[in-house]
Amino acid sequence: MQNKGLITVFAIALGLASLYQLSFTWVANNVASDAEAFAAGDANVKSAYLDSMMSQEVYPLLGFTYGEVKKKEMNLGLDLKGGMNVILEVSVKDVLKGLVANAQDPRFTQAITNTDVAQSQGQNNYLNTFFAEFDKISAETGGGLLLSDASLFGTPEMTDKVGFNAANDAVQAEIRRDVEAAIANVFTVLRARIDQFGVVQPNIQRLEGTGRILVELPGVKDPARVQKLLQSTAELQFWNMYEGAEVLPFLVSANDKLRDLVEGEKATTETVDETPDFSDLAIEDVEAPADSVATDSSDVLSTNNPLFEVFRPMVSETGMAMQGPRVGYSLIRDTAKVNAYLARPEIAQMMSQELRNAKFMWSSKPEPNSDIITLLAIKGNRENTPELDGGVIVDARPDLDEYNRNIVTMAMNGSGAQKWQRLTAEAAAQTPKRSVAVVLDNYVYSYPQVQNEIAGGRTQITGNFSAEESADLANILRAGKLDAPARIIQSDVVGP
Q1: Which helix (H) or strand (E) holds 409?
Q2: Integer Cα distance of 98 and 121 in angstroms
Q3: What angle do helix axes 168-197 and 92-99 make, rounded to 10 degrees?
Q4: Confidence class for position 139, pLDDT limits 50, 70, 90
Q5: One-character DSSP codes across 5-34
Q6: β-bridge pairing 83-90 and 212-218
Q7: Which of 3, 103, 341, 421 is buried most, with the most CB atoms less than 10 Å from its CB?
Q8: Are residues 119 and 175 in the same domain?
């Protein structure tokens, strides 16, 4: 009888433990259902909604946030939940074509052709095979053929790294490093895109020893959209920026115009009980200058302000624009609505001549420990071309500054260094000093203020980075403008 009682107690304890674990899945599913209802089929809105809930308490009994609940819920995986299983491959051949001085050089094209043939007969590392085939061509032509030949890989960028007429071993090492940077960059970009896509419990991992990346996306129902998302090539760009004060008058006018346009409509976003009210946020929630003060929400959020009900401009309590490039901020879930407002033709045509080519972009990550994301105004031009692109970067590394903060150091080639010197001289000469945006996939990854003219192309980028974030940004910078798209080589849609 005692054993029976012990078994009963054990069974009850096991049942309670199981219910406790399952409760996290139940709570997470409830929030996901609310997101589905709120988004009305719009995947971007759903993603923004779920992002905004990450730090919100959704399990009041135990005080867990949605982010904590997500970590504790059961991982159903593809077998139980369905979704997509994708393997992508970064084309090393395309990376090599991006690195070589003349992609039509017969020695290079022959080495590529021979490598493709050899690869079709085995599964060796593409880069190793390419180097072996190049050595064969060198031997057939009497030996002494250098990868650092001016028509091959002896580009100004490579010469800056290894010197003139460098030995093949040195050039091979740099090519390997560039290929690795390209693959790491693709991995970083894919991870960021998947996070923004709003997939629950995605799995993304590199397959070691190859240029392949495995992606598992539970619950995905739009394969075509996912394929486009995963395969498009990202391009690094550097842009000039406006000061927030230059944009504030336009935002005020836009809000007034929207009041007329949406009169009679409900301008605020419908929310569920667990969704934070934007009016509860004060400007001190966003990292700001020490002498800044909070904005009285009653001033900004008075009756029927369509734009300012979902977007907070960076102003002091007296209504003056704060110094710096930040235009304002919003909850992540409200960014789609802000974008829609600013993109309306009636609003866009209100921009002054000075702002006519302005481009609004969000920061790549929310402010620390919050669901608040910053809007920035990029200074565009008629050609819609950046001041610099990633092709000028010859090196970038994660590092620590004198205060032991994570930073990224980068170096540019000769032409890039000249443009960078001009750009930084102009930015530093203005009052207040201007910032430069580092942009990838139309998200601003960093926007350092330029303190002084920078000659020589060597620069430090700061941005409140974690060690992982500084390493990711360094990979992105090093990969630069290499044409290294990730191609899907295997794709399976799995039913639940």
Answers
A1: strand 406-412
A2: 25
A3: 120
A4: very high
A5: HHHHHHHHHHHHHHHHHHHHHHHHHHHHHH
A6: antiparallel
A7: 341
A8: yes
Say if CB 26 and CB 37 are below 8 A apart. no
Cβ atoms of 88 and 215 within 8 Å: the answer is yes
In terms of DSSP bridges, do strands 57-59 and 64-65 run parallel, antiparallel, or are they unpaired?
Answer: antiparallel
Contact assessment for residue 448 and residue 409, using Cβ atoms and an 8 Å cutoff: no
Alpha-carbon distance of 358 to 351, in angstroms, equals 9
End-of-domain residue from the set 74, 97, 112 = 74
pLDDT tens track for 144-200:
899 999 999 999 888 888 888 899 999 999 999 888 888 888 888 788 777 766 666
What gap in Å lies between CA 84 and CA 197, rounded to an integer? 14
Domain carrying residue 271: 238-479
* C-alpha span between 183 and 93 (Å, rounded): 12
Distance between terminal CA atoms of the chain? 44
Alpha carbon distance 463, 368 (integer Å): 12
**Whether residue 216 is found in the same domain as residue 263:** no
d(CA 298, CA 141): 79
Q: What is the pTM of this model?
A: 0.65
Which amino acid is located at 14 in the chain?
A: L
Contact present, 410 and 219 (Cβ < 8 Å): no
**Adjacency order of strands within the sheet including 83-90:** 203-207, 212-218, 83-90, 486-494
Residue from 111, 234, 137 nearest 184 by CA = 234
Query: Do 293 and 228 reside in the same domain of the chain?
Result: no
What are the C-alpha distances in Å from 331 to residues 22, 94, 256, 285, 360? 30, 39, 21, 11, 16
State how far the Cα of 247 lies from the Cα of 349, in Å rounded to an integer.
14
284: which 2 tokens?
């001190």
User: Both 343 and 380 in a single domain?
Assistant: yes
Residue 280 DSSP symbol: G
- At 493 the three-state DSSP class reads strand
